[in-house]
Write a structure and sequence with these properties.
Layout lengths: L8 H60 L9 E4 L2 E4 L12 H11 L4 H4 L8 H4 L4 H7 L20 H8 L11
Antiparallel strand pairs: 1-2
Length: 180
C-alpha cells in the first residue's frame, strides 16, 4: 500500500491505467481458461448426453416401479436405497381463497379470540413513494435521509469479460480476493 500523497489527475490516470492493464491480463487468462472449458465440454458432450439420457430413463423406470408398489412404502413412507430416497411424502398443498375481506369476516365471527394470529393488520409507509418526495416534504413527515453524500468510486466499466472475471474471483477453488 502506498502512503497517502496528493496527486495530480495525471498521476491518478497512470494508476488507473495500470489497474486496467492488470484487469486485462486477468481477463486474458480467464478467457483462455473459458475456451479450454468449452473445448472440454464439447469433447465430452456426447458421453454426457448419453449418460444423462440413460439416467433419465432409469429414473422414470424407478418411479414407475415405486408407484406400482405403494404397499412397500406404507411405514416408513420413504426409504433410502443406494443413496436414492424412494417412496412418498405428503404434499403440503397451498391455501387459496377468493376474497380476503370475506375470509377475514368469517375468521372474526368464528375465531374472534384468535384474530391476531389469523388476520394480519399492518399500516406502514411505502418507501418507493416516499423516495419521490422532496427533502422538505420528508422533514415534515419526520423521515430522515441517512447515508447520503459522496462516496468514493473506483469501479470498472462493465465489459463482456467481467462475468468471467467475477466467476474466477469468487470461485472457492481459486480463493482470489476481489479487488474493490
Amino acid at each position: 500500500m502506498t502512503d497517502t500523497v496528493k496527486m495530480s489527475i495525471h498521476s491518478l490516470d497512470m494508476l488507473a491505467c495500470h489497474y486496467s492493464e492488470c484487469r486485462q491480463d486477468l481477463a486474458d487468462v480467464v478467457a483462455v481458461m473459458h475456451e479450454e472449458q468449452k473445448a472440454t465440454r464439447r469433447k465430452h458432450l456426447k458421453k454426457i448426453q448419453a449418460a444423462l439420457s440413460e439416467a433419465a430413463n432409469s429414473k422414470l423406470i424407478l418411479k414407475e416401479a415405486i408407484n406400482a408398489n405403494r404397499q412397500l412404502f406404507e411405514k416408513p413412507k420413504t426409504q433410502v436405497l443406494h443413496g436414492i430416497k424412494c417412496g412418498f411424502r405428503k404434499k403440503k398443498g397451498k391455501l387459496e381463497w377468493d376474497d380476503d375481506d370475506k375470509v377475514c369476516e368469517r375468521i372474526k365471527k368464528n375465531y374472534h379470540d384468535e384474530v391476531g394470529a389469523l388476520v394480519k393488520t399492518k399500516t406502514k409507509p411505502v418507501r418507493t413513494g416516499l423516495e419521490k418526495l422532496s427533502a422538505n416534504e420528508l422533514k415534515k413527515l419526520g423521515v430522515r435521509v441517512v447515508g447520503a453524500g459522496d462516496v468514493l468510486v473506483c469501479d470498472e466499466v462493465a465489459t463482456e469479460i467481467d462475468e468471467l472475471i467475477d466467476m474466477v474471483m469468487h470461485d472457492d477453488e481459486f480463493a482470489v480476493e476481489a479487488i474493490s
